[in-house]
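Budget justification, computational time. The allocation requested in the original proposal was used primarily to generate structure tokens for proteins on the priority list. As evidence of use, we reproduce two of the resulting records. The first is shown immediately below.
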Amino acid sequence: MSAPLKPARLTPPDILRVGVTGLRARRIRVVLSALGIAIGIATMVAVVGLSTSSRADLMAQLDRLGTNLLTVEAGKDADEKPVKLPKAAVSMVERIGPVEKVTATAEVDARVRRSDAVPEELAPGVTTQATRIDLLDALGARVERGRWLDAASERMPTVVLGAIAAGRLGVTGPGAKILMNDEWFVVVGILAPVELVPTLDRVALVGFPAAERFFGFDGHPTTLFERSSDASVEAVRGVLARTVNPGDEHSVKVSRPSDALVAKAATDKGLTTLMLGLGAVALLVGAVGVANTMVVSVLERRREIGLRRALGATKNAILLQFLTESLLLSALGGVAGAALGAIATVGFAEAQGWTAVIPPWALGAGLGATLVIGVVAGLYPAVRASRLHPTVALNAT
């Protein structure tokens, strides 16, 4: 006696095959619909990737430069008159226990010109500062060309230019001469850009003794740079002003240059949120496109649906077929978008000199979002297709 016959049911591979066949029949429309999803996912992946790469580069920069540098600048007293830091300010700060390094610069009244053929009123916007020879060590700065001042040259008419100052004066290397007031100074070095103190990029630096000898400098420093251990930065910060100017601590400004970089990171985070919002809008538009494609597909394929129902296909089989098509359509856009976003992130990061960082959660969230979109966008058309009566569907024009 033969076993009773059982109705045939579609297996998951059968449903997948039917869904792929349905999409292959409308390739141009599928590509255009998937493009909306791809743009949204690519935008979100690229925004997250670029933001993460930028922050990673900034954090590496902070680690390299250190967040333990404090600056002390002279301000104004209660009568709004400029206050001078004491000549012994450096040695006063050195007596603070946790202080590891301290140095100073001072503004000097000296006009800088490339030669006497340049009128004074057309000076290139380069200022002069006196400096101690331990400045580079305290700031972690370096000389790009030539050399730094030493114990001998700080007393001589020699000068080191900041990176921008050298460009403005047209000096490309050591050995050139520039005119400072009425004295010729020999350029012995050009600094690389000083990231923590960018104002030094625009100055000509001479030694304290040379500034006193050639420009009548009075020896009062304008800015002190101090480094201490990370654990004691805030404690040192709390006593710096009182140490430098015990009688009027409010006339002294204490700041931390790395705070500007941290503020930049916070600004980037806000911009990232905005761009993610725009990516979400693009994703929503893509979802509407998928839903529209599926609805039109149901209307165009009513005869096919009616024929399958007449041959025994169940409502669930029709429902799963159209849901599968919608999921495949969204997944196609999601995969393409994730790839485009990753490529854009790597390309832009390399152009900026960053290390590309793409969080795995961004890719996972993007692909997960496409699956959710596929279900939501395809649910209504799938239900509508499954509820079509075979007779009505076969009579559709």
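The second record produced under the same allocation is shown here.
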Amino acid sequence: MKIIGKWLLLFVIFIVSPVKAALDIVITEGVDAARPIAVAPFVWDGIGEAPQQLADVVMSDLTRSGTFSPIDVRALPQQGIFTAKDFRSADWANTEVEALLVGRVKPYGNGQYQVNFELIDLIKSQLPQTNGLLDPKDLVLDKSEVLISESQFRSYAHMISNRVYEKLTGIRGAFLTRIAYVVVDHNQASPFQLMISDYDGYNENMLLRSKEPLMSPVWSPNGRKLAYVSFENRKAEVFIQDIFTQARIKVSSTPGINGAPVFSPDGKKLALTLSKDGQPELYTLDIATKRLHRVTNHYAIDTEAAWFPDGKSLIFTSERGGRPQIYKVDLASGKIRRMTFEGEWNLGGSITPDGKSMVFVNRTNGKFHIARMDLSTRFMQILTSTSLDESPSIAPNGTMVIYGTVYRGKQVLSAVSMDGRFKARLPVGQGEVKSPSWSPFLQY
């Protein structure tokens, strides 16, 4: 319980996971509100069975986005097409689908495969034609032809999902991102595991295993490093670890709390919570020089900083008003103002990539929910209906939030769309999962 547990602990003592789809996403709400889309099985133009079905991955991606609801492939009016040239608009006249994705996979030799796809505009295909029949190529919203190896099938399918999502919504797709999280399995000798996986739980890899708690993983802006808190030396210390070379450095090990690290937007600094001078206060740390700058100075607890996208301000959780609430501090002037007032507690805030909203944990009537506030109107919306929700992490395109919650007495991860309509749960097979952190857009 990254936020709630840590906060409760702060109040008491001033201190504070193999290649497998471990995160089996279960969609719980919101499919009915999604936009219908058709994804045809990609035509296999080879001998025997296709190595993998790209369309299955694309359908899963679009479904998990909460924005689209692919129709049953058995209900497709046309089967076996892979180009707009074979598309018959009359066959699709009675559907409400707005776009159709078709494609083909063909062996190319030397372990390579030629993959083609086209995204067909079904809305345009149904418009009255005044100048004769519409040229099929005018229905194509997007198309591509590439050579890939079998090992690239899954990542290329995510790339197709990104292009379809952006073409139909105008928002960059986030299907080639990753998440970091902590798995706790007390049946293991070293029960704490820092894991990273694709956003959908595939390609899970363990970055670190420890007998002592690991917490608060957070991505660097370039997606190549993680900062996190480790108690492996029987005290809270902050490390930064390269996820490719596994090399890591200890960046903060002052007396008392060393917690809640978060990279600045340019990746050159960390904001973190230190209690080396008594009370938990916010600091910024220049990673290259290790120079510390104290941001807050108050007798109450200040913690859980998050950066505004311009890097000029932080939000943080403080109980200087008597209860945990979220405040904003201007780093140049040091001026602080309170951001939240509704509910009993508000804590663990993050700013959306566009800087327009804040996502945080709200406690009302004793229940912890994920909430979003429009920063211009101050309107607050409760996004989740579960309880004991914590550790919200926003997708880099700002459309979804992944967070920790409790399901059947076990800590799991869940996801909710930014409008609260779509919800999914990500249970884990062994142990419990917590402290999720969604990566930025990745360039590798």
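A brief technical remark on that second record: Confidence is low (pLDDT under 50) at residues 1-20.
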